[in-house]
Amino acid sequence: MKRILRFIPAFLAAVMLFSACAPGGYTLKVFAPATNVVTPLTEQTNTLTAKTDQPTPSPVVITSNSGLAAFQHTLEQIHAKVNPSVVNIDVTVRSTAAVPRVPGAPNTQQTPPVQQGLGSGFVWDKAGHIVTNNHVIEGAQNITVTFSDGFSAAARVIGQDKSSDLAVIKVEMPESALFPVQLADSNQLKAGQFAIAIGNPFGLEGTMTLGIVSALGRSLPVEAAGANGANYSIPDIIQTDAPINPGNSGGVLVNDMGQVIGVTSAIESPVRASVGIGYAVPSAIVQRVVPGLIKDGKYSYPWLGIAGTELNSDIIRALNLKPETRGVLVGEVTKGSPAEKSGLRGSTREVSLENNSILVGGDIIVAIDGQVVRRFNDLVGYLVRATVVGQKVELTILRDGQQQTLPVVLAARP
């Protein structure tokens, strides 16, 4: 199964994500930049909720005078701390492909073949909730969770969210056998910090790899279009060079204190294996989405309801703006959306540029709640990590060259 990956300048401001992998092997999304094709691997609450039942983590104690030995000891402690929280997830999925009828055979119902899939996950709480990627368990008929000590238990689906590629499953286990992870605030991450992945690449449980946070603020597309055909993306994605491979999907990316900073979800590679570009859903999104999945089986995203494009030098010249102006030019305002109700204006007239033409005349969003908006992802990212349905935000806009503030009450995304 292949799907063309299209990055377009216009998105509806809500959220997010890339879609489900076809089951039947080790699950991890693979982006093939050479051909711009996305290839699934099939190898045969309304408030930001931090976990309150977790103790404040302590820095790892270094007992050696040797720098190299101390570093190695730190890694050993991180693995010993985190690995009991990471699980192997085995799913069986009944294929949706039509079963060809054998000529001359009786006209009876043919049973579709069963496919196997492997991924990773991690313990969320003492109630037995396990977090993984949605594409790991989507369509699964049977789910088996295997812990680091080799014990296996059946799991059932609690909630799924395609828009963040996150899902929650649950096992019935004694509290004493469950070791929840500790989460860090991914909003505090900086490029260059250590990033450590633990998961089950190719089914090799408990595998740990080391790298750094290569970049922040990446964006990954959502598989399915939203309301009115709008395309969404997951914002604030973490890029890392810590090697992650098929089977790592749903595993953890942790910092140097063993706290989860992200959920490993995808790689960009022409060879269906790690080439040093991996992606993780940030913990700030996980902290918002997972409690909603546990409580309601779904998560409602705050929605603004616009399509737009980022300012570039051609647009800035065409609109006679100051060269240093940055922001998002509103192209379309969805009917009935919070943006329309607030009076936000979309573009109405066409202007020819050097290589193409665009619609202009709409408002230019330069900030939200005082946070500067330079790219569309800045706007989407803020909505996801800092707002909830029903919250009032203030957009700072340029309208006819004049700056003004526009209050908007966010609704739930259709």
Describe the structure.
This protein is mostly beta strands and 414 residues long. The protein folds into two domains: 2-48 and 73-95 and 114-297, Thrombin, subunit H (Beta Barrel), CATH 2.40.10; 302-412, PDZ domain (Pdz3 Domain), CATH 2.30.42.10. 14% of the residues lie in helices and 36% in strands. The protein has six helices and 26 strands. The strands form five sheets. The protein has a six-stranded antiparallel barrel with strand order 11-12-13-16-15-14. A six-stranded antiparallel barrel has the order 5-6-7-10-9-8. Strand 20 and strand 21 form a beta hairpin. Mean pLDDT is 82; it is low at 1-23 and 33-52.
List the helices and strands and how they pair.
Layout: E1 3-4, E2 25-26, E3 29-32, E4 37-40, H1 67-82, E5 86-94, E6 114-123, E7 129-133, H2 134-137, E8 142-146, E9 152-161, E10 166-171, E11 194-199, E12 207-221, E13 233-240, E14 252-254, E15 260-268, E16 278-282, H3 283-296, E17 302-303, E18 306-310, H4 313-318, E19 328-333, H5 338-342, E20 349-352, E21 357-360, E22 364-368, E23 371-372, H6 376-386, E24 392-399, E25 402-409, E26 411-412
Parallel strand pairs: 2-6, 3-15
Antiparallel strand pairs: 1-4, 3-4, 5-6, 5-8, 6-7, 7-10, 8-9, 9-10, 11-12, 11-14, 12-13, 13-16, 14-15, 15-16, 17-26, 18-19, 19-22, 20-21, 22-23, 22-24, 24-25
